[in-house]
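Long-time lurker, first post. I've been practising inverse folding by hand and with some scripts of my own, and I keep getting stuck on stretches where the structure tokens seem ambiguous. Below is the full token string for one chain I'm working on. Before anyone asks, I'm not after the true native sequence, just a reasonable design that respects the backbone. If someone could post their per-position residues I'd love to compare against what I wrote down in my notebook.
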């Protein structure tokens, strides 16, 4: 229960009533979400039934509807959306109208929304403007403060900025200046915490810089994995609301945050309609097809009992044994994909074999080749130069995700493993 300004009556012996006004700090309750990516194209998913593909493309909208319904059900004071509401800089009319519809639902319940735009939906894009209801407060391209006040007089200052262009490399954290005169202070920031080399360094900041602002809460966006960065000060990345590819695996959602007097509470609300996951199955060289097929079916059935929808990658751990051929795996994948699907589905989108790096055998003719493969793999730096033209192409870039350093390393290791396996097997 939130504190409030109230009147306390004290009865004393002379039967006189003394009215004492006691001021208690009232609380606030809000939802923090980020990285909605409402118009994600979900490209590159071949052989997927149209019904499942349709469900997947609709999943970010359904996840967002879950957030709005939770906000109304929980009677929050407001919601904050910390960037990348839209996947592309050129927002479609359909997506904007659907977003407005959800904002209008909030308006009917007197729930404001405070919004910043990030690197994906920056302000320099080209789109037809759709007017939003009065309860929506969008931060401009320069850091500013917006004031929220409850009926009981509790006040909140919210700080933030929207990306004026796609790439913001400046330390925008330096422009967040605490404005006195509010009970609570909340910073909205779409950017990268220093030390996280797996993500592009947009609007970089350090935890020390966040703490120096003396805010009650930092509503972060940009990182798609849920992270409670710090409890004091309270700093949270909620992650995105719906996984869009295999790199964004696991349950996705938003945060419910509550302040009450000196207490701060936060809880995670699941929103993902479809969950990307991977499962590892240990196999042996003499197991045969039927044994492998049974193992795959057992994993799928176990996921199906969950009642949620999954896009599943199966990893076959073959140890040092020779792996199955690509043709064999493709056929097994197709067989599993032909299984009946209900309202919730478990769709196997890929099967891959995990093998330990083959031992280089004493084949004198192959040794130079294998040594060169290993040398090239160790010297590999990045793919930025090779892919630069694709990422600036106006038609292609909206379908491309950044290849992070960790994924680059995994791709190189997989290529090296495959080459050594091809030339070393059955020697």
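-- Answer (accepted) --
I ran through it position by position. Result:
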């Amino acid at each position: 229960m939130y504190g409030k300004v109230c009147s306390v009556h004290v009865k004393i012996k002379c039967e006189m009533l003394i009215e004492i006004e006691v001021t208690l700090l009232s609380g606030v309750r809000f939802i923090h979400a980020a990285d909605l990516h409402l118009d994600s194209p979900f490209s590159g998913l071949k052989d997927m039934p149209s019904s499942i593909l349709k469900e997947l493309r609709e999943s970010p909208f359904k996840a967002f509807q879950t957030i709005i319904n939770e906000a109304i059900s929980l009677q929050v004071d407001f919601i904050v959306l910390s960037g990348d509401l839209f996947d592309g800089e050129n927002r479609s009319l359909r997506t904007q109208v659907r977003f407005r519809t959800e904002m209008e639902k909030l308006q009917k319940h007197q729930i404001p929304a405070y919004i910043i735009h990030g690197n994906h939906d920056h302000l320099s894009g080209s789109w037809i403007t759709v007017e939003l209801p009065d309860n929506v407060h969008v931060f401009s391209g320069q850091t500013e403060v917006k004031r929220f006040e409850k009926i009981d007089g509790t006040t909140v200052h919210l700080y933030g900025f929207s990306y004026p262009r796609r790439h913001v490399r400046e330390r925008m954290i330096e422009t967040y200046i605490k404005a006195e005169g509010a009970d609570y202070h909340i910073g909205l920031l779409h950017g990268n915490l220093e030390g996280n080399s797996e993500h592009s360094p947009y609007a970089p900041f350090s935890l020390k810089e966040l703490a120096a602002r003396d805010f009650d809460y930092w509503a972060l966006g940009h990182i798609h994995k849920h992270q409670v960065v710090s409890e004091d000060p309270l700093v949270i990345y909620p992650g995105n609301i719906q996984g869009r590819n295999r790199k964004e695996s696991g349950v996705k959602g938003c945060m419910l945050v509550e302040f009450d007097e000196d207490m701060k509470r936060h809880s995670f609300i699941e929103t993902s309609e479809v969950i990307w996951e991977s499962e590892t199955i240990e196999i042996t060289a003499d197991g045969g097809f039927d044994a492998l097929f049974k193992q795959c079916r057992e994993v799928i059935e176990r996921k199906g009992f969950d009642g949620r929808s999954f896009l599943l990658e199966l990893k076959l751990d073959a140890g040092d044994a020779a792996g199955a051929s690509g043709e064999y795996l493709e056929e097994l994948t197709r067989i599993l994909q032909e299984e009946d699907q209900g309202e919730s589905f478990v769709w196997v989108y890929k099967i891959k074999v995990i093998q330990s790096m083959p031992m280089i055998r004493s084949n004198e003719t192959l040794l130079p080749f294998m040594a060169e493969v290993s040398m090239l793999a160790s010297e590999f730096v990045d793919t930025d130069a090779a892919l630069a033209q694709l990422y600036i192409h106006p038609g292609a870039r909206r379908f491309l995700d950044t290849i992070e350093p960790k994924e680059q390393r995994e791709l190189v290791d997989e290529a090296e493993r495959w080459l050594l396996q091809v030339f070393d097997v059955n020697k």
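A couple of notes from the structure itself: Residues 359-427 form one domain. The chain has three domains: 28-270, 274-356, 359-427. Happy to go over any region you disagree with.
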